[in-house]
Amino acid sequence: MKKAVNIFWFRRDLRLDDNIGFYKALHGKHPVLPIFIFDTEILNELPQDDARVTFIHETLQKMRDKLQEHGSSIALYHGKPKAVFKEIVSKFNLQNVITNHDYEPYAKKRDAEVKEFLSEKDIGFYTFKDQVVFEKDEIVKNDGDPYVVYTPYMNKWKEQFNADEHLKIHYTNEHLKNLVQHSRLPNLKLSDMGFEKSSIKIPEYDVTPTTIQEYEKKRNFPAENATSHLGPHLRFGTVSVRKMMKKAIAQKNETFWEELIWREFFMQILWHFPETVDTAFRKKYDRVEWRNNKKEFECWKQGKTGYPMVDAGMRQLNKTGYMHNRVRMVVASFLCKHLLIDWRWGEAYFAEKLLDYELSSNVGNWQWAAGSGVDAAPYFRIFNPTTQIEKFDKDRQYIKNWIEEFETDQYPEKIVDHKEARERALSTYKKAVS
User: Mind telling me which residues the site (Electron transfer via tryptophanyl radical) is annotated on (predicted)?
Assistant: First the structure.
């Protein structure tokens, strides 16, 4: 008779401590078999040297090493989740699957399929809130409608927030004896899945008191190394959002704290309005007649538009998988307004390249730049990519760092004239939305 087990399914929560679903699983009555599935539905769209796949794989190997000290490990699988669970059910006496909520449209569909399959076998499927403080419809207007403007959402968020209740840390270390005692669970190399190690490395996050205290003062200047690099770590759950909120509150930095709340704002927007992945939140903006010039799009992607801040940002992205937040706004505005290229093209390119790619934030920010989203900049607000340099990179330090041929004959000519492109954008948008 096979021994009864519960599974904990790691996904966007790649840490052993302060992981609510993992904590709950370890308190169940059956030993816990930890698993991770490299989902082919997602991986098949990615390049062989994708830095995020390398990061996930390396993180899991460190977690496996840690659990092997406790006589256990993490079983790694490669395939479609439902097919993987069919295989697991044939080998283990599975009682329950425990995991943490995921809010993206594909994840909801995947979880519904897995849950249906498991229920046919009388196996429980339980999920818990872990990657946010407030989720789904926990922060809504008094009439139950979702907020579509950030500031009132943020005010209600803070009003309902209770640090003792919402930032309780769930320590798991003393409960690791409740794992399945088997340290040789299935493992995978990157090459087993058709991947190779990326040369791009996800940087460690920096949430020292100094970074948090100086965040507001320095965050808009791309030449300063003043951002936390928390994005990928929150995305893949290598840090707990509760611990990060605690740090922000301890340093009494409202701006840093509110950036974490922005993330939850966009997540609840995606939850309430999943169609905004493909369509404008403000429907009339889908009438904008995009030019979608492929040659200009290539210039934008390669950082060869002749606008130094745009080009520096795109080259930074292509080389490192990261772009400074201030520059992201300039780059996105340039694509949508100066070039009149569909925001969905830019969103897809960022999704391919960004180490901290998060569907809800990426869609939310691109729609903001295009003027079509919730709480969006009005369409007639068009960033001037040249005056942005004077404000935020006056000494051209950031630009010179990323554009070797800057101020030489090799640097490309401007692909559009700012004044003409601005007037064209205003005319095109006005026609669409009036």
Answer: 290, 343, 366
Question: Scanning the structure block, which residue is given the tokens 């928390």?
Answer: 230
Tokens 């808009």: give the residue. Answer: 220
Has residue 151 been placed in a domain? yes
The response to whether 249 counts as a known ligand-binding position is: no
- Statement to judge: residues 12 and 102 lie in one domain: yes
Count the Cβ atoms, other than its own, within 10 Å of residue 407: 11
Query: Is 260 marked as binding a ligand?
Result: yes
Tell me the CATH number at 226. 1.25.40.80
User: What is the rounded (10 degree) CA torsion for 38, 44, 50, 56?
Assistant: -10
Give the span between the Cα atoms of 92 and 77, in whole angstroms.
Answer: 15
pLDDT digits (tens, 9 = 90+) for 74-90: 999 999 999 999 999 99
**36 marked as part of a ligand binding site:** no
Query: Which distant-in-sequence residues (6+ apart) come within 8 Å of 395 by Cβ?
Result: 223
CA 250/CA 244 separation, integer angstroms: 10
pTM: 0.94
pLDDT in tens, 271-299: 999 999 999 999 999 999 999 999 999 99
Residue 264 assigned as binding residue: yes
Residue 265 labelled as part of a binding site? yes
The annotation status of 113 as a binding-site residue, yes or no, is no
- Residue ending a domain, among 130, 154, 185, is 130
Residues sharing a CB contact under 8 Å with residue 275, sequence separation 6 or more, in sequence order: none
Q: How far apart are CA 249 and CA 160, in angstroms?
A: 15
Q: Is 67 annotated as a binding residue?
A: no
- CA 312 to the chain's CA centroid: 22
The tokens 């960033």 sit on which residue?
383
Tokens of 142: 């008094």
> Is 262 annotated as belonging to a binding site?
yes
What are the structure tokens assigned to 427, written together? 């005319």
List, in sequence order, every beta strand (DSSP E) within 177-304: none
Residue 65: partners with Cβ closer than 8 Å, 6 or more residues away: none
Indicate if the alpha-carbon torsion angle 273, 279, 281, 283 is positive or negative. Answer: negative
| Same-domain check for residues 136 and 260 | yes
Q: Give the Cα separation of 382 and 380 in Å (integer).
A: 6
Structure tokens at 316: 């930074």
The whole-angstrom separation of Cα 247 and Cα 342 is 38
Return the beta strands (E) in 40-74 as ranges.
Answer: none
**Which H or E element spans position 399?**
helix 397-402
Q: Is residue 257 a known part of a binding site?
A: no
Tokens encoding 181: 């005692």
